[in-house]
Amino acid sequence: xxxxxxxxxxxxxxxxxxxxxxxxxxxxxxxxxxxxxxxxxxxxxxxxxxxxxxxxxxxxxxxxxxxxxxxxxxxxxxxxxxxxxxxxxxxxxxxxxxxxxxxxxxxxxxxxxxxxxxxxxxxxxxxxxxxxxxxxxxxxxxxxx
Length: 145
Known about the structure:
This protein has 145 residues and is an alpha/beta fold. Helices cover 51% and strands 15% of the residues.
């Protein structure tokens, strides 16, 4: 399975950088997951399962590596305006369906997701670890049948 390989790659990359982050004294890892790892969305079981596993890896590494002053967090976005989503942005029916399920009634801007990642790397977030932050305009409050 390709998705499992990506999750495995994430874990191996973390293992490789662990010594460097430990030496730094203030390490921070931020994974990018998806709301599909938190609630049901119609994107497929394997995709959702790997995102859920990434959310759990976030918690486990945060617990295991806290002694080394390495924080591990995750950002789980809903739909964001990126080049990958451009075809969907032309589909009015799809946009309306997403907006109807999202309390803020819109897709995220890419910088709204990246700003969350940036914040988690800053000293201002130095007491945040093991968290998956939903950047979803409130979507996970409503769900998506």
